[in-house]
Write a structure and sequence with these properties.
Length: 396
C-alpha cells in the first residue's frame, strides 16, 4: 500500500504527458505482470520485487488516472461519482476475504494469485474506456471551428511546461491540505492491520472475528455514496469540513476500540469508523479540484498521495512495536486516534485561507479594472479636442 501511494507523484507526471488512458492501461499491464510473476516464486524474498514493487507500481499507475478522469466528465455531481467509483474497494473489502479463504483452502497461494490476475486483466480492458473530454470541450467553448482533424488534435493533452509542477504549493490552501492530510493518517491504517489480532486477544471465544473488517467495508461503501452526494451540495472549499468531521470520528473511534469489552460494542465502533472512512476517501478528489482547478489536479492528487504513503507505511509497524513492548494493543489504538484529531484541526484553516486569498484576488482585479477605466477616460479626454476640430472642419 505504501508503494502504491509513493509512486503517485510520478504517475501524475505520466498522466499529464500521456493522458489517463495510456497511463492506466500500461499500469494495469505492469500490475498483471507483477502478480503473475509472483505466482511462480518459491520464497518470500522475490515477492518483495514482484509483488511489493512491480505489482504495487502497476496498481499505482492504474489507480490515480481513475480519479483524474472523472473531472473530465463531471462537475456538478463529482462527489457522488467519486463515491460510486471508490465504493468498489469497499465491496471487495467485504467479498474478497471470503473468496480468498475458499481459494487458499482448496488451492495454494500461488494458484490463488493466478486467479486474481483475472481482475488485473479486467482493469487493463477498462483502462481503454478513459476517453478525456475536457480538452475538446474547451476547444468547442473557445469557438474553434474546422474539420475533425483540428478537433482531434485539440483532444490530445499538451505536455506540461514543467515536469514537476511545484507551483501548486504556492496555493496556500492546498499546501495546508497537503500537510494536514498526511499528518492525520499516521494512525489511519492501524485498525486495518491490527484490529483482527486485537480481537483474537480480547475476544477469544468469538468465532467470526473477521466480521469487524467486513463491517468497516460495508459502512465505508455506504459512506462513500452518502457523503459523496452530500459533498455536491456543499459549496466550494467548504467540502473540507466534511473531511474534518470524518477525521474527528475516525480518531474517536480508534480510541474507543480498547474500551470495548463487549463484541457488539466493537461492531458498532467499526460501523461508525467505516462510515466516516468512506467520507474521507470519496471527497478527496472534489476538494483537489476546488483548490487547484482541473488543469493542475493530476499532480495535486499525485503529490498528496505520495505524502500519504509515509504515515500509512510507518503507522502500523509502530503500533506493532508498542504491542510487543507493552503486551497489548490498547496504547497503540489510543495513540492512533491522536493524529486524525490534530490533522482535522489543521484542515479547519483551509476555508479561511482560501476565502482570504479570494478576497485579495478580487481586490486586485477590481483595482486593475478601475485603473483601466481611468486610462480609457483619460485617453478619451486627451483625444476629444482633435475629434472636435475634425468635426468642425467637416461641417465647414
Amino acid at each position: 500500500m505504501g508503494m502504491i501511494f509513493f509512486c503517485c507523484p510520478i504517475v501524475s507526471i505520466f498522466t499529464d504527458i500521456f493522458g489517463c488512458r495510456k497511463t492506466a492501461v500500461v499500469g494495469a499491464a505492469i500490475g498483471f505482470i507483477g502478480l503473475m510473476s509472483s505466482s511462480f516464486v518459491s520464497s518470500i524474498e522475490p515477492l518483495y520485487l514482484t509483488y511489493g514493487i512491480i505489482f504495487a507500481s502497476g496498481c499505482s499507475f492504474a489507480y490515480q488516472p481513475s480519479l483524474v478522469i472523472l473531472g473530465h466528465y463531471f462537475k456538478k455531481r463529482l462527489g457522488l461519482v467519486n463515491g460510486i467509483v471508490t465504493a468498489g474497494s469497499s465491496l471487495f473489502t467485504i467479498l474478497l476475504p471470503l473468496l480468498l479463504r475458499v481459494l487458499t483452502e482448496n488451492l495454494d497461494l500461488f494458484y490463488t494469485l493466478r486467479i486474481l490476475c483475472i481482475f488485473m486483466f479486467v482493469l487493463f480492458l477498462a483502462g481503454f474506456t478513459y476517453r478525456p473530454l475536457a480538452p475538446s470541450v474547451r476547444a468547442k467553448e473557445s469557438g474553434v471551428k474546422g474539420g475533425n482533424r483540428s478537433l482531434f488534435s485539440k483532444r490530445k493533452f499538451n505536455p506540461p511546461k514543467k515536469i514537476f509542477n511545484f507551483a501548486i504549493f504556492k496555493v496556500t490552501a492546498y499546501a495546508v491540505w497537503a500537510v494536514g492530510i498526511p499528518l492525520a493518517l499516521f494512525g489511519y491504517f492501524v485498525p486495518y492491520v491490527h484490529l483482527v489480532k486485537h480481537v483474537n486477544e480480547r475476544f477469544k471465544e468469538e468465532t467470526n472475528k473477521e466480521v469487524v473488517l467486513m463491517c468497516i467495508g460495508i459502512t465505508s461503501g455506504v459512506g462513500r455514496l452518502l457523503f459523496g452526494r452530500i459533498a455536491d451540495y456543499v459549496p466550494g472549499v467548504k467540502k473540507v469540513y466534511l473531511q474534518v468531521l470524518s477525521f474527528v470520528f475516525i480518531g474517536l473511534m480508534s480510541m474507543m476500540i480498547p474500551l470495548c469489552n463487549v463484541f457488539g460494542a466493537l461492531i458498532a465502533v467499526c460501523l461508525i469508523m467505516g462510515l466516516f472512512d468512506g467520507c474521507f476517501i470519496s471527497i478527496m478528489a472534489p476538494i483537489a479540484f476546488e483548490l487547484v482547478g482541473a488543469q493542475d489536479v493530476s499532480q495535486a492528487i499525485g503529490f498528496l498521495l505520495g505524502f500519504m504513503s509515509i504515515p500509512m507505511t510507518v503507522g502500523p509497524p509502530i503500533a506493532g512495536l508498542l504491542r510487543e513492548k507493552l503486551g497489548s494493543y490498547d496504547v497503540a489504538f489510543y495513540l492512533a486516534g491522536v493524529p486524525p484529531l490534530i490533522g482535522g484541526a489543521i484542515l479547519c484553516l483551509i476555508p479561511w485561507i482560501h476565502s482570504k486569498k479570494q478576497r485579495e484576488i478580487n481586490k486586485t482585479t477590481a483595482g486593475e479594472k478601475m485603473e483601466k477605466m481611468l486610462e480609457n477616460q483619460n485617453s478619451l479626454l486627451s483625444s476629444s479636442p482633435g475629434i472636435l476640430k475634425k468635426e468642425s472642419d467637416s461641417v465647414i
